[in-house]
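Hi P.,

Sorry for the delay on this. The queue was packed all week, but I finally got your sequence through. Input first:
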Amino acid sequence: MRKPVIAALILFALAGCSKSEDAKKADAGPVKREPGAWKSDLKLVRLDMPGAPKEVVDGVAAMMGRLKGLESCLTPEQAAKEDMATALAKPPGDKGLCSFSKKDLSGGKVDVVMVCTDEASKEAMTISTNGTLSAKSSNVRMTMEGKQNGMPMTLELEATNTWTGPCKS
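Then the structure:
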C-alpha cells in the first residue's frame, strides 16, 4: 500500500485545491482553481516508523524534501474539469477498500477521515485530510496512521499551493 499512498500524496500536493471566489457558487458546484501558474510545496511534518530500517525512513524523508517549489501550468480547460475537493476525498491509488467516517467538502474547506484496507495485506490505514481552499491558494494537511508492511507508521504532510499568475510560455 505504500507506493499508492505516497503517489496519492504527491498528486494532492501537485494538484492544489480551490473554490470559486463567490462562496455561493462554490457551495453549489465543484471546487475550481484559477487557470495559470501554480507553485506547490509538500512539507513533511512528522514521520514515525518504529522498527523500520533507517534507510527506509531516510528515503521517505528525502523524497518528501524534493517536493518543494514545484511549478505547474493549469490550462483553462483543465481548470474547468477539475474538482479538487472531491479528489481529496477519494481513496489513494484506487486499490483496496475504503470507508469514510467523515466527508465534509463544503464552504471552501476539506474535512475527510477515511480508513483504507489493502486487499493483499489486509493492513488498514486511517487517512485524515483537513484544509482550506480558495481560487488562488490552498493549504491541506494530511495525516496517515496505520501499518505498512507489518510495521506501525504515522505520516503527516502539509501541502501548500499558490497561484503565481499567468503561465509562462
